[in-house]
Amino acid sequence: MQGRIIKGVAGFYYVHIPQKGLYECKAKGIFRKENRKPLVGDEVQICILDEEDQEGNIQEILPRRNQLIRPAVANVDQAMLIFSLDDPKPNYMLLDRFLVMMRKAQVPVCLCFNKKDLAQPEEMDAVREIYAGCGCPMIFTSTRTGEGADALNQLLEGKTTVAAGPSGVGKSSLANLLQKEIQMETGTVSKKLKKGRHTTRHSQLIPVREETYLMDTPGFSSLYLDAIEKEDLKCFFPEFAPYEGQCRFQGCVHISEPGCMVRQVLEEGRIHPSRYENYCNLFTELKNKRRY
Length: 292
Known about the structure:
Layout: E1 2-9, E2 12-17, E3 21-27, H1 29-33, E4 43-50, E5 55-61, E6 67-68, E7 73-74, E8 78-84, H2 92-104, E9 109-114, H3 121-130, E10 138-140, H4 149-156, E11 160-164, H5 171-178, E12 204-209, E13 212-216, H6 261-267, H7 273-289
Helix pairs in contact: 2-7
């Protein structure tokens, strides 16, 4: 029988079989020998061991459309990067890391800024300005008032969406707002550190509607970029694309080269300084990493 893994905990995988329900399964030992691990989102073939208790074994992992490392999930149509406008304030460096990671994995991205009810209009305007050129749809939501729920539903419709972002921004609250079947544990933000307490401990695939799924994933405090050459980093910043090939030197990485068109339009205000500064910091990080 074929189904989809919606959760994995302590070596058990919970596989949803359409019209039959949820089966608790173990994976075959051959997967460990082949260094293969089932992931949330995987389509799998299972054999039924106990129909009454709905237990089975995963026999086969079907080919994946894609796979993410952080969070470790498979077969996603898009990523929704969730950050809060306040409590905690948005960490733009972390957000830009997420954007690079998802673009490297060729996963389309939409941006969701939650806790709209805590923000001033000028704070939302500042976010819009920073990410106007990043090529991603952007919505503002409030789980407290329900604002933005309709726009969010439109973005999710008919897709499997992985929700990613730091703790305390309201990922689980948004999941609860969109559906009522699986209520996720929500937490508070540490007043001392202004960081969220991790409430999602395992990735989980949540049915929102038929053919519409949301992957709730654990929060992250830091992310390191893997398998990206520093010279290729510029390809993951869409703001730079219109000016590629217009720099004085071929292969310009837009850091300190004379005659750099990207730096010129930066000075003219056509690229936001926050995005460019984060690009430079990530470039330096990748450059230093290659020394060791």
